[in-house]
Design goal:
The complex is a heterodimer of chains A (486) and B (156). Chain A contains 16 helices and 16 strands. With 486 residues, chain A is of the alpha+beta class. In chain A, helix 4 packs antiparallel against helix 6, helix 6 packs antiparallel against helix 7 and helix 14 packs antiparallel against helix 15. Chain B contains 5 helices and 5 strands; from the N terminus they run βαβαββαβαα. Chain B has a 5-stranded mixed β-sheet with strand order 2-1-3-5-4. The longest helix of chain B is centred in the C-terminal third of the chain and has 13 residues. Classes of the chains: A alpha+beta (486), B alpha/beta (156). The interface between A and B is medium-sized, with 25 and 19 residues.
């Protein structure tokens, strides 16, 4: 953990460098870097200034509407909210959904992992990784990638399309499907749709195998970035299966440290308040979750692909297990700590997703019509937890006897990486910024460091709104020294 | 609807169904998908995503249906589209022109494209169309029917 925790009152800075907004992220953010009198980086902050208020305006709504409402928090990962919300509803109804419903929910969650990770890797990060951090900014985008490597660009489109098709074939719509409900799901899977998805798997598998090989070949070019893009000790938190296998839908919470020591295990997600605290800071609308046992901010933890692959004992499918072992061997079998490797972890999760999609589609009861358990309100509180592509997601509802929501608390995946993202920006700035020269490459590395987490800021502040495009540099008096527009 | 053999058509209707008239493109596309026209693929979607470039590249013709904010009396517009300038970035939501550009860049295709925009007056938070926009639906259906029937039958 950083020996200089964030303080409410920043040290006197001679200059402030602002990157506003960070591009190629979902949602918008501003980054402020504070220099000291010697023009060394003293502090960095990742500001979120968007606000939406889902937790408040859901009060008074019927429980059964919550999956449909909360699914609209995000257009990239609506399925994550749909499932966590439905699971909170399962708890309030005190029912176990039928086996087929659980498998279909798993299937749609895997579809979302595939499409979201494909978007992150191919559309948002590949321009940096494949074209280079110092490449011409006007070409360091998807169209530059198309010109340089059209096959990779097409593969990215195809992979994301497949993930969307899994969601659409199972739930009827790609975006905001109102399909998972408390007790199960609305519609079963047809044999036609099942076969449609199966027929595409060989092509999709080829794409992710190629992407993994491409990325592994690139790693040598980014040793410096791997050393300073969020390369610091932290805890890692996420769901694991009963035998420690990689999980994305169910299971219990495990927390490990950077040495791989299990700090906490088999924690019931419904008891999250006992082990997760949420701090607030005056300069951000994003809350700061932390592991209570370690306090704030020492209890910083990371979630998402990097964390999930650090937590688990195995992936659970043949090819993904092979890749996972190779990935962990990079650090002698211990957890992989640098946030640069979120990209690598995402690709392995896509591979695991494809293998598990095939297993689920081959389940003998996957087209069963028994997909919903019916019940009324049997408990007045319920927590639903599942893994979103970006990390663990909690939906915590309280309802009255009529099933009307009285209180909502959401802990969003990206928010749990908030402290780590701040730490990452600080680390990158300290490594690359000499206080004299603000280069395009420097700014892009700071953004790329944040982007490694694939933050979904609209989601994590349950937010809306846009920020103006401006980069400013100020002296200690607030006078503008320089401005840069992106 | 006649049962001629059509070349492959793609109809893409898009918009937010929760914002009253903004959802008219989505709603009309859902309706058209029930017409069961041979060789017609219909996409009803919240927004235009990059993956549609793949669909466009495989179609012989494509038409986009969207709402168009209006204040006074106005008419349904049908116009030809062309790929736009190459943008500097790509979001998960695109314009029809950018989609065409993306399809051209990725797949080397220049699919003939049109856009039909329907006057929209109400963007409040609801799922119903305003009476003024709803009155234009019969004309919108006729426009799509004419667009579908303008395709020459392929030679045997």
């Amino acid at each position: 953990m950083n020996s200089e925790p964030e303080t409410p009152n920043p040290p006197k800075s001679r200059r402030t460098i602002t990157i506003d907004p960070v591009t190629r992220l979902e949602g918008h953010a501003k980054i402020t870097i504070h220099l000291d009198e010697e023009e060394k980086v003293a502090q960095a902050r990742f500001h979120i200034t968007e606000f939406r208020g889902f937790e408040k305006f859901c009060e008074g709504r019927p429980l059964w509407e919550m999956p449909g409402i909360t699914g609209r928090i995000c257009g990239i990962c609506p399925v994550s909210h749909l499932l966590a919300s439905a699971k909170a509803g399962d708890a309030i109804l005190a029912v176990d959904p039928p086996v087929t419903a659980v498998n279909l929910r798993r299937l749609i969650n895997l579809g979302q992992f595939i499409q979201s990770h494909a978007l992150s890797f191919f559309h948002l990060s590949a321009p940096d990784l494949l074209l280079g951090m110092e490449s011409d900014p006007s070409k360091r985008n998807i169209f530059g990638l198309i010109a340089s490597d059209p096959e990779t660009a097409r593969d990215g489109i195809r992979l994301r399309q497949f993930g969307q098709q899994v969601i659409e074939q199972v739930a009827g719509r790609k975006i905001h499907p109102a399909w998972a409900v408390p007790g199960g799901v609305r519609e079963p899977l047809s044999e036609t749709n099942r076969q449609f998805l199966l027929d595409q798997l060989p092509e999709i598998r080829r794409i992710v195998d190629t992407a993994l090989e491409t990325f592994k070949r690139l790693l040598d070019q980014y040793r410096e970035e791997a050393e300073c893009f969020g390369n610091f000790p932290s805890l890692f938190l996420g769901l694991v299966g009963p035998d420690g296998a990689w999980e994305h839908y169910d299971g219990c919470i495990r927390i490990v440290d950077s040495e791989g020591t299990v700090v906490a295990d088999q924690l019931n997600p419904a008891d999250y308040r006992q082990f997760i605290g949420e701090a607030v800071e005056p300069w951000s609308y994003l809350k700061f979750p932390y592991f209570k046992e370690k306090g704030y901010p020492e209890g910083m933890y990371r979630v998402g692909p990097l964390a999930r692959l650090n937590l688990c004992n195995r992936m659970g499918t043949e090819a993904a297990d092979r890749e996972w072992r190779s990935y962990r061997d990079r650090n002698g079998g211990k957890p992989v700590v640098s946030s640069f490797f979120y990209h690598y972890a995402r690709l392995i999760e896509i591979l695991a997703g494809i293998e598990q999609v095939e297993q689920i589609l081959d389940h003998p009861e996957i087209t069963s019509k028994r997909v919903r358990a019916q019940a009324g309100v049997n408990r007045l509180t319920g927590v639903g937890a599942s893994e979103a592509p970006r990390g663990t997601l909690f939906h915590d509802y309280q309802v009255d006897e009529d099933g009307l929501v009285t209180k909502v608390n959401l802990i969003i995946a990206t928010g749990q990486n908030n402290l780590a993202m701040n730490q990452t920006v600080l680390q990158i700035a300290r490594h690359y910024l000499d206080g004299q020269k603000i280069t395009e490459g420097l700014l892009n590395r700071i953004e790329a460091g944040v982007r490694a987490y694939d933050p979904c800021l609209s989601c994590s502040t349950h937010a809306y709104g846009k920020m103006p495009l401006k980069v400013t540099l100020h002296d200690v008096t607030g006078a503008l020294l320089a401005a840069k527009t992106r | 609807m006649s049962q001629k053999s059509f070349l492959s058509h793609l109809v893409v209707g898009y918009g937010n169904r929760l914002r009253a008239d903004d959802g008219v493109g989505f709603m009309l596309a859902e309706e058209i998908s029930q017409w069961k026209v041979p060789s017609l693929r219909v996409v009803a979607t919240h927004q235009l995503c990059p993956e549609l470039a793949s669909e466009i590249s495989r179609a012989d013709r494509v038409i986009f249906i969207d709402a168009r904010a209006c204040s006074g009396e106005d008419r349904i517009e049908l116009r030809r589209l062309h790929p736009g300038q190459t943008p500097s970035s790509i979001d998960h939501a695109l314009s029809p022109e950018r989609l065409l550009t993306l399809a051209q860049a990725l797949y080397g295709t220049t699919t003939p494209a049109w856009t039909m925009t329907i006057p929209a007056y109400d963007f409040s938070w609801q799922e119903n169309l305003s009476p003024r926009t709803a009155r234009l639906l019969p004309e919108a259906r006729q426009s799509i029917t004419r667009w579908l029937e303008l395709t020459p039958t392929p030679a045997p």
